[in-house]
Fold this protein.
Amino acid sequence: MPSLRTRVLRILAVLAALTVVSCAAALATVDRWFFTLSNPGDFDASTTPPAPDYERWDATAWAALPELDDGADRAHPDHPGIDQASAEAAVFYLHPTTWLGSSWNGPVDDPMVVEGTERGGTLIQASVFNACCAVYAPRYRQAHGHAFVRPNAPGYAALEVAFTDVRAAFEAFEARIGDRPFILAGHSQGAALGTRLLREVIAEGPARDRLVAAYLIGAPMAAEDTGLPACETAAQTGCVVGWNARGPDYEVGGFEFEGDREDTMARRLCVNPLSWSTAPGAVPAESHAGALFLDTPAPAPKPAFCDAECRAGALVITQMGDLERDVPSRVLLWLMGPENYHPVEYQLFYLDLRRNAAKRVAAKLATMHDAPEATP
């Protein structure tokens, strides 16, 4: 008969094995239980936060404005921004999801939302455009992430609230910039809302003539969803750029947008930021202008950091340098799933985006300056 010590060790071994299996199962299904636990439940309009007043033109309603000192003003010394007060073009930027609370729509004045929007939106994404444009970034009552990955009637109601804000902010933006050309930009939830704004408002109205381009990155968008063509050259205007960055061995997980599953991924728009075309074929890292992570202690441009190829609707990256992420950022990447580069889709191609936006603005301004004046 085994000794007492041996029996105890066997029991502990079994318990340890069970713990490992349980943890592995929990990690493998983290997407399911995370969204089950975070489901806000029924939609109650009476608990929806008040709408921002975009006519106030201050930090209560705007995360970035030309006259504010905000994250969108940050620039690396080697790649300085312009004086936004005299910019000939503007950008309307919609930030990604930064609300992690328990209600369907996030308040714009929540301190964690304000900080998250600065760090995860205006600093690392909207700042791309300060080399060409005056940057406007509205705060909006963003929808809970559940509305995108587990859509239902309450989630659709939350998205309507968010889009109501986006549309109101765009109307205020349009009135303020006048006849200047503009860029529409967004990421993730911001790109999804921007796609609807492009389709329902911009593509069908007079603003279309002044649109430089739309950079709607990290959303399950097809070109036909926007009402405008995909960009096929680096200087084309009036077109749409979009991509979803993944690794070659990425497997679709539960943190994707609903409808962004294996059977529909191929329809997504992919404009390669190393060629500015939807054409297939790998573009080597030597063509990469550079990644830039402004949320790191010592941001430095990283040229030739990665390659890129549009493949079956995804922007596939097969080689990449060190992502240089802090612990919370690495946890986020882990939660998204192996080789899902959604959280860093702007930063990976930061300098490519920066140069391209300036190039398209210059092309648009040239056509507007050369246009004949209307007959009185």
